[in-house]
Amino acid sequence: MNAAREWMIDPQGSSGRKYLSDAGLQVPLPKQVSGSSLSTAAPLAWQHKVINRLAELTTLKENWDSYGARRPAASSAIALFNVLTAVMDIETPAPSVVPSPLGHFQAEWHRNGVDLEVEVITPTKIAVSFSDASDPTRDWDEELDVDFTRLVEAIARVGRKS
After folding, report:
1. To 5 degrees, how large is the angle CA 133–CA 136–CA 142?
2. What is the pLDDT of residues 1-36, one digit of tens each?
3. What is the pTM of this model?
4. C-beta of residue 73 within 8 angstroms of C-beta of residue 103
5. What is the domain range of residue 120?
6. Looking at residue 137, what DSSP letter applies?
7. Does 151 map to a domain?
8. Distance CA 34, CA 54 (A)
9. How many domains in the chain?
10. H or E stretch at 142
11. Which helix (H) or strand (E) holds 149?
């Protein structure tokens, strides 16, 4: 993956918003998504689970679902990992990671009455679906590009202690 774009947090710290930008703080990128480990310093527990699952899924072949599904791309695995690294923290539970028939990946959480699905179509096209059984008026579906503020808030809802 071309690392021309880097994830950053608002450098002024004033808005608390998370953006994708051409400049800023670089998030550690996986050097490779193969095997069962990643060469980075002290990955968080959720990172180990996600990396191992992505490594497993990138071994799928064309037509893995027998309906013509595309082989998941390593670049899509890296894109999902980068999005998750940008929006998750040490307290966030690991998501379930599933392949898309289009060759990319989706992270899912179904806990505490919250359903959150994050499908990384491209590094700047992320489809998010959020529903909260305790308050259906808060449900939303949106395609995000560079402002992940709503996603960070949704991640906080799935990570809360039950």
Report:
1. 110
2. 322 223 333 333 344 444 443 333 233 433 444 443
3. 0.71
4. yes
5. 6-159
6. G
7. yes
8. 8
9. 1
10. strand 140-144
11. helix 149-159
